[in-house]
Task: structure prediction
Amino acid sequence: MKGDTIQIFVSMVIYMAIVIGIGLYFSKRANESSENYFLGGRSLGPLVTAMSAEASDMSGWLLMGLPGVAYWYGLSDAAWTAIGLAAGTYLNWLFVAKRLHNYSVIAGDSITLPDFFSNRFKEKNKFIMTISAIFILVFFTVYASSCFVTVGKLFNSLFGFKYQYMMIAGAAFVLFYTYIGGFLAETASDTMQAFVMIIALVIILFVGTAAAGGLVVVVQNAQAIPGFFEFFGIASPTVADGIQQSVNGVPQFGPAGNYGWYTILSTLAWGLGYFGMPQVLLRFMAIRDSRELTQSRRIATVWVVISLGAAVALGIIGRSLFPTDLKTYSASESIFIVMSSRLLPSMLAGFVMAGILAATISSSDSYLLIAASAFSKNIYQHLIKKNATDNQVMNMSRIILVLITLIGIVIALDEKSVIFTIVSFAWAGFGATFGPITILSLFWKRTTREGAIAGMMSGGIAVFVWKLVLKPMGGLFGVYELLPAFLVSCVFIYIVSLMTREPSKEIQDEFELAKKKSMEN
Result:
């Protein structure tokens, strides 16, 4: 490696060493009990709750996937996605956070999302718990693979190392410190990484704008590309075999595409996903005092608005600075890396690009831990070995951590994978499977166990059917699968709940108690 590259590498190694140190520091406390390992003993403060929730949610797509969309297609697709996500973040913290925290304590002191659903409906055969755990395992394995793709692309772009080797090394690193530190290590490192991510975005935003000649020049360049700088239009790169064509160093684009209200509604639907994201909902459950969630909401909202806005802007600025450097949609997701390595001193570039590692690590650790807890607590302990000790549950969770990592590695082996596409599918899966039942179980007393099962099953299945069968037909079926699947789930919950016997007095009394406590706080 060259001198500059070595400095970048050293900066990132130092960063990774700090993360491992955090895992080691919390390992003793994490291993005291399964509640500490999976939920941190409900001891999180408002800052850690907010920052770790957002860092674990955004993943590597914030610094690679979203800027890549803006670089390739222009403003509209990326901006409307960001607007939907910002709105969803705020509404989730406003309406769901406090009620879920209080209800999860009242409903059997639940420490996982499947626990809460099962305890909420007082089920004896644990069917809701089982299907919840299965969906979490499936979608979080896909989600984790997107993080491994991010790490592989990062080190391949920076150092020229073989993508597959770097992807596997990154997966092993995340597995190691999640394995030893559990939820406490995860939330502490996520908080640090949230600061790294937003600082990295802001630094590149200002440096990139200055290097491009100022904001006016960036806007003029973007407006010169048909549909690139429009909210109701979209750029159409001219490609041959997936590679964008250029003439005399000028990237070629076709006529602007139309970005109508139906497409906008589809893109805004990203915000619905928040109501079903286990890694975010778990932070609501883990805070030490529900009254502190108001402060957490403000912190989280500010962080999200700044981060998403900066990520979209980077894609626009990157097209002005490096118009022909990234010739495929997959390659466009490296625009943040290109800007960092070319515009900053080596050591600072290493710090900034640690932001990508931060985004990736802060998400993948959450995905692995929640998926492992879903199996070990909700399937192994309740169905397979009902008399399992706390140590046996934690040992099983670590076995599942390894298995999920291996499956995620297999999914991520293709270096042409597009991070944004992988994330969008898993996001839709969680949003449609858990979003409607989370909202209705918290705010509609008439929701029944049968309605919950019907809603979760129909929402999860609808994502697969719409994505794989209907969406390829185009037209009205081209809408993001989260929107129709979310609506399908809501309809099934409502209709089946009305068709079945109303919840028992015990369930209704708990609902009213959770409602009252949330209003008091």
The CA atoms of residues 40 and 90 lie 24 Å apart. The two ends are 57 Å apart (CA to CA). DSSP finds 20 helices and six strands in the chain. The mean pLDDT is 85.
